[in-house]
Every structure is written in structure tokens, then in C-alpha cells.
């Protein structure tokens, strides 16, 4: 009798842990489906499946919704037999995926909780191992779990969860996320986001230099760097020990005309600055170029700096000038940073 009660307590604890994790994971992604799609595209690129990227947005919405739905159904014990099997299958899949990320194919961030919580690959793997164990317990002991709602009222949980997922996804696709976890959210201080606390452990990298001599290429480290008869080809940098990484760590702006780094100049400006952000001008929407040009003319009249940040090359910049008549200055920035700053292409940011 006592052992049966203990098993019941353990089963319900595992169920609550699994349910709350699925709800948190689904919620942090469903409020930002664009961010989830970017992470899906990153995985597809790493695994050589770029041909699936056009479907990344549809998959990201399905993934967010599935996680949130599973979490709510586990929490309220709705269709527990079916949902416990789905939860176990999902955890087995994600555990294998994170095992690959932690060993063979490193990924900078798993994206499990969107931009809200960042975990290392090892932390993600340990989390998934624990959750898989919880899923096994839930699958085997589903009859020992108590209910929050009766079987006759299960439709309420299902219907309202579906309505929330659809409404939130549509809202976040066309407007800024209702709950914005991005490091560039409204009100964020970019300079403070780039700072490293005093005494923080720094990440350690090992640099390998690829050199060439007489048609032969070899890799060297700083310890056995060769003489000047070898020609430098490229440098490879590998993270060997993780450390503190500030929320904003790749924010750089380079003037396309002069090649000068103007990041500090922009951050030091006490007034307003407009940034037109377009990771890829080749695929940017030119529908509102007239409004953008009018805003640039207003900024010129008022003495307000206006820059277009992009990761595109000179040909794409010139093509954008030709089709829109753009006269504003263009600057180069990191592609991933631009996609993180704003989800639309192009999008306008006021500093």
C-alpha cells in the first residue's frame, strides 16, 4: 500500500516536470515563430538539408504548437495514453539530436527555450536525459495520475489551447512578439548587453592555422607555427572551454563605403538613430520603399543619422538602389545578428 502511494507520487511528479517543461518550451517559441524558424533553418543547414528551408516556418509553428499542446494535455491528463506515447517518442528523438549536437555536430544553441533561456549542448543533453526518464515513468504509470479536469470537460483544455496557439502565432508573425525575449527587445540597452562582468570566466579557443608550401597544405598551432616559407591560407578557431558570453556579442557595423568600423560612433550618439535592417537585400520586400525614402529625407532634414544594415554583397546593394532609388548609406553587419535584431526583412529600428 505504501509502495503504491510512493509510485503514484513519483508518477505525478514526473508528469508535472514533463508537462511544465513542454509548456515553457512551447510558449517561449510560439510567441516568436520567426525566431524558431531561424533555428530550424540553422539545423537544416548543419545537416545538409537546405532544400527543406522553405517549409521551416510551417514546421516551426507546428513544433511550437505540438510542444505547448502536449504540455497542457499532460498537465490536465487529457488523452493521457496517446499523449504519453507522443511525449516519449519526442524526447527520444530530441535526446538523440542533442547527443549529436554535443559530440559530432556542434550547435551553438539548441533553441529549446527560444531566446528566453540559453543552454549549452551538454546542459541540453542532460536535461533531455532527465525528461526522457520522466516520459518513461509517465508512459508506464499513466493510470496512477490524478486529474485537474473531468473527462467530460477535456474539450475545454484542447479547444482553448488550440485557439491560443493559433492566435498567438498569427499575432507574433505580423507584429513584435507579445513577450519579447530577444536581446534586442524594445527598451534594451545594446551597450550594456555587450558588457562582460568583471571576473567572468572567458571562453577559451584553440586556433589552428592552415599553411601551404610547394602545393602541400598542413595545419599548425601557435606552438609549432612554421617559418616564412609557408603561405597562410586560413585560420580555424575551435571552442575548447566554454565561458561567459554576453547576450549581445556580434554587434558590429562597418561602413560599406569606407570600410570603417562605426559601431562605437553609433552607440555613442546621444540622439536618435534609425537602422534599416535587411539581412538579405536579395529577398527583401520592396513594397514600402517609398515610405522608407520619405523617412530618410525627413532624417536628413532633422539631422538624424539613418543607416541600412545588411549582410548582402555590393551587387545586391546596387540592385536595391536601382529598384528603390535608395540614397541612404549602407553598412555591413553579421547576418545572424541582423536576423536576431528584427524578424522582418527589411525592418526599421530606432535607437
How does this model look, in words?
The strands form 2 sheets. Strands 4-7-6-5-8 form a 5-stranded mixed β-sheet. Strands 2-1-3 form a 3-stranded antiparallel β-sheet, with no helix packed on it. It is an alpha/beta fold and 351 residues long. The chain has helices at residues 2-30, 33-46, 56-75, 80-103, 121-140, 154-174, 190-194, 263-268, 289-302, 314-324, 335-341, and strands at residues 204-213, 216-220, 231-241, 254-255, 274-278, 306-310, 330-332, 347-350. The radius of gyration is 25 Å and the shape is globular. The protein has 11 helices and 8 strands. The termini are far apart. The mean pLDDT is 86. Helices cover 49% and strands 13% of the residues.
Strand order of the largest sheet: 4-7-6-5-8
How does the helix and strand content classify structurally? alpha/beta
Main sheet overview? 5 strands, mixed
Instruction: Please tell me the overall pLDDT.
Output: 86
- What low-confidence regions span 5 or more consecutive residues with pLDDT below 50? none
- Work out the radius of gyration: 25 Å
Written as H for each helix and E for each strand, in order along the chain, the element string is HHHHHHHEEEEHEHEHEHE
List the helices and strands and how they pair.
Blueprint: H1 2-30, H2 33-46, H3 56-75, H4 80-103, H5 121-140, H6 154-174, H7 190-194, E1 204-213, E2 216-220, E3 231-241, E4 254-255, H8 263-268, E5 274-278, H9 289-302, E6 306-310, H10 314-324, E7 330-332, H11 335-341, E8 347-350
Parallel strand pairs: 5-6, 6-7
Antiparallel strand pairs: 1-2, 1-3, 4-7, 5-8
Helix pairs in contact: 1-3, 1-5, 2-3, 3-6, 4-5
